[in-house]
Automatic annotation (TrEMBL):
Origin superkingdom: Eukaryota
Protein name (record): Uncharacterized protein
Organism: Ridgeia piscesae (Tubeworm)
PANTHER family: LD39211P
Entry-linked Pfam families: DUF1647 (PF07801)
Amino acid sequence: MKTVQSLHLEPKSYTTLTAANAERIVVVTGASSNHFVESKAMIKSVQKYMPDRPIIYYDLGLTKSQASEVRSWCSVKLRKFGNSAYPTYVTKHLRCYAFKLLIIQEILREFPGLMWLDASVRLLGSNFSAAFAKAVENDGFEMINKGINEIFTVTHPALYEFLPTNVQRLKHTHIIGAGFMLIYNTYATFSNILRW
């Protein structure tokens, strides 16, 4: 069985993240044909509020005309997702979202940090200083969007038999979404989050 380590996606060197360099990021997203329309609105919001920021858009199954349209957008570079070394369940079963971690690792080999945005995200402003500061504080990782549900309400009770935890605390802990996040190629990020 192939592991992520066998794909050699770890960065050649790690970033020392500071307040001075936290804003050196590239915006990354990806969409299949069924999420293309909503991704257009997301890209428009990035271009409005972060006009100087490069955007990398992964083609997760766009039609030819959709891919052609993406290529025409300012400051957007289109990349086809898929590597023959990746297991087929990663490239064929997008609802498992395994592609997202592989894309993040691919990007962090090239750039010191990224802002991942799902197609459904809309930026409502340009001040991300608190998020950048939190990413520095967390040594390279910040989940920006918070879910509306508490973890407890959407977790099957039998799961707690296998994952001992403080259930009372989970009743007041909100889900954190993975649709809007800052990730940097720090040693801490790769050893604690992307290590597999």
